[in-house]
Design brief:
Blueprint lengths: L5 E6 L3 H16 L3 E2 L8 E6 L4 H18 L7 E6 H6 L2 H5 L5 E4 L6 H9 L18 E5 L1 E2 L10 H5 L3 E2 L2 H13 L4 E5 L16 H9 L6 E4 L9 H9 L3 E6 L7 H6 L6 H14 L4 E8 L6 H14 L3 E6 L17 H24 L5 E9 L5 E5 L10 E3 L7 E10 L2 E6 L1
Parallel strand pairs: 1-2, 1-3, 3-4, 4-5, 6-9, 9-10, 10-11, 11-12, 12-13, 16-18
Antiparallel strand pairs: 7-8, 14-15, 14-17, 15-16, 17-18
Helix pairs in contact: 7-8, 8-9, 11-12, 12-13
Length: about 425
Amino acid sequence: MVKSPSVYFVTLGCPKNEVDSDRMTAAVVASTYRIAESPGEADVVVLNTCSFIQDAVEESIATTFELAEDWKSHGSDRKLIVAGCMPSRYGDELVESMPEVDAFVPVADEGSLLATLERLTSHSPGPLPADTLRTAGRPSAYLQVSDGCFRSCAYCTIPSIRGPFRSMHLDDIAEEAELLASGGAKEIVLIGQDISAYGRDLDDDVTLSDVIATVASVEEVEWIRLMYVQPDGITEKLLNAMAAEPKVCHYLDMPLQHASEAVLRRMNRSGDTESFLHLIARIRALMPDMALRTSVIAGYPGETRRDVRELHDFIRRAEFNYVGVFAYSPESGTVAAELDGLPTKRTRLSRAQAVRDIADEVGVAKAAEQFEREIDVLIEDVDEDGTPVGRWRGQAPEVDGVVLLDSGTVGTIVRTRIVDVLGYDLEGEVL
């Protein structure tokens, strides 16, 4: 009996790409195709790419050529599909520049992956279920409540890659949350380009607060985490909903990008140092244990030394738990790429490192505040030494450090006393 073709997924980029890959994987699982355990066992590799900034584009290109040279060349019938943001951003340009690739599937067409597989392999995927498709099966899972963006930040490529802002309907969110929880997810992480804008495109008068209530109604869900919440969308209604719902982690990821009003206006963004500090004070007044993450861009066109000093001062005063720092990258097709006053690459990298150093000084001190405290930890994995690894409510997946435990079972939430602090990572004894 001839085996059906097998497919292996490689995912680059952000959690939104992880959700896209998970949905494509679930579609393959539901079909007559098989999931390969490694590239060497696969007939088809699907590379889900990122192209948000130039570094991500370069990584996507390098990975594509690596797969074409090291994987595809070792099998005459092997097929390589490049999916996601890079095909969305560059379109037909890639067909000529990457003849090694058998098919390109942009973000908007990822639902047609099975049709692409059938065309390349001449194997029918068979009938498919009409239900929401996710693979689930993990203690923490991302739930994408919206896609695309309505904003026009001068440096950003997201609207051209993922299109206009679109909210997921509450019924679909409830269905997906239940599916993820039934597969073992204790934590649901709400993501999107800007989840605070949820509902602006829907006829119903719904907001992110309604999403929180919908997901919280799923009994098996124990933690709800909010990521990518723009500062102008953090309303009193949202903060009150977060404070009132015990399942919501007191954690907010709000990308501010800078603190200087002059730089923010050139970015086509609102806000300034004082308004941001006032917002942070409001948040912590209502939820004193709130963990805050932000992201900032250093070396933006026209950024002066005064702007740099203001950003440094702001990072110290705001006392974020975590800060993602990026050196500005000129991206073709954006307004910012045409602005005057671009610092040299060396200056941009140097300024980013200076902000990173300040942020780490503050963030590591914030992490040290957990020493000898008792906190709940969700165990997600076991490392190569057999040590259970998890996170507390103040740590988001993949970006904020972990808690190393002396015992415990994957998929459980355990009460833990913190006995040591290692930078952003914590060590704990299960009580």
